Amino acid sequence: MKNLLRHFGFLMLLTVIVFFATGCPPVDSEDTYPAPTGLTAKVVHDKIIVLSWNKVKDAGYTIYGSFESGGPFIYIGYVGYGTGFYVTHMDDQQRVPLEPETTYYFKVGCYYDGELSPEVSATTGKWEK
Fold first, then answer.
1. How many CB atoms neighbour CB 50 within 10 A?
2. Does residue 52 sit in helix, strand or coil?
């Protein structure tokens, strides 16, 4: 029994070494997620932009934002489950807050190799800083 466990442990170690040496298998192009559909952007209380979209089966989502139509788009956050995101900042570290009376542009994609949705925009309201 002791020899059997020793051999099993060796085989497990060998499997781990081979896996990490060769890397993860590539994802087939057929396995990529489609772009989420139905993306909308709505301003709430003049200061928050609420993004929502239609669910893609078994997907998490990455959110991208831009200060200009057409980009460049930068990563601003992710959603593991659900189909909505509250935007209060234009970066993932929350160092760039939204500004009053400013138009922002957004796209959403599925983890990891998903296509991006068409661009949508929203303009914040007027408020005192």
1. 14
2. strand
